[in-house]
Amino acid sequence: MIKKAYTVYMGLMLFFLYAPIAVLMIFSFNYSPSRNYWGGFSLRWYRDLFNDPHIPQALFNTLVIAVLSSLIATIIGTIAAMGINSLGRKTKSIIIGVTNLPVFNPEIVTGVSLMLLFVFGIRVLGFGEMGFATLLMAHVSFNVSYVILSVMPRLRRLDGNLFEAAMDLGAPPMRAFVQVVLPAIRPGIITGALLAFTLSVDDFIVSFFTIGPGVNNLSTLIFSMARRGINPRINALSTIIFIVVMILLYIINRRDSKKRKEHLA
Predict the structure, then answer these.
(1) pLDDT of res. 265
(2) Own/partner pairs for 106-111, CB < 8 Å, 24+ apart?
(3) Phi-psi map region of 158: left, alpha, beta (phi>0 left; psi -120 to 50 alpha)
(4) Residue 148 clears pLDDT 70, i.e. is over it
(5) Are 85 and 155 within 8 A, CB to CB?
(6) Residue 52: left (phi > 0), alpha (psi -120 to 50), or beta?
(7) How far apart are CA 110 and CA 98, in angstroms?
(8) Which residue has the higher pLDDT, 229 or 5?
């Protein structure tokens, strides 16, 4: 009885999660722009999607911002995590608490705060204008905390004597770091970089407040399109994004399962 109830519960949960996505995907192939009736199967909205010059540019901006922000945040966050790890216990706890603030802070507070900072820099200090640079700095600012939180657990597990032992054996500090410390904390660095990339691609609220005129990423472009009514091209774009994500998840899960089997063998 319990097993059946659990199966029904899981089925209902999956239905409510994926039914809206299924409807969206179905209507992306609807010839009619109306959501009230089916006008026949068509790839019309996919053709319009690829013929729209704004969407490829927004996709390019999204990927460039995500790659650059995750790379910069990973470098800064890794160095910061190593510095925090070398501090005393009381100072470390205070710094970690400050580092956690962007994680627990509502995104709208972060977005408005960064917007006010950039506006102050532009209007009072005369630094450029809102646009690609401000969007990149905003994404780096909230990604650094996630990288630090990903790298810190690896540093806590690392034996601090290994670095000194490598230098005692004649290795220069940089070589000791690259060959001893870096391999030990590499999983945390990779996790932080992937998390930063995902958060950057997914972000809307911070991007909305820090983006400038003439610059869009996918989230702000979809929002601007949705404000004028549900455009069927949004259904096509969302379908493509969903399929790409599902393919990537399948490849990653299959690779992990192969590694587990090889490890057990």
Answers:
(1) 61
(2) 107/142, 107/203, 107/205, 107/206, 108/205, 108/209, 110/141, 110/142, 110/205, 110/206, 111/138, 111/205, 111/206, 111/207, 111/208, 111/209, 111/210
(3) beta
(4) yes
(5) yes
(6) beta
(7) 14
(8) 5
Could you state, in order of their start, the residue ranges of all structural domains in the chain?
54-229
pLDDT at 140: 93
Q: Does the pLDDT value for residue 110 go beyond 80? A: yes
Residues, the chain? 265
Query: Which residue did the predictor score with more confidence, 181 or 115?
Result: 115
- Would you tell me how many other CB atoms lie within 10 Å of the CB of residue 100? 13
- Rounded to a whole number, what is the largest CA-CA distance in the chain? 76
Q: Compute CA distances 130 → 35, 37, 120, whole Å.
A: 37, 43, 11
Report pLDDT for 74.
Answer: 94
For the domain made up of 54-229, give the CATH fold. MetI-like fold (1.10.3720)
- Judged by phi (left if over 0) then psi (alpha if -120 to 50, else beta), residue 166 lies in alpha
163, with CB counted inside 10 A (0-12, 13-18, 19+), is middle
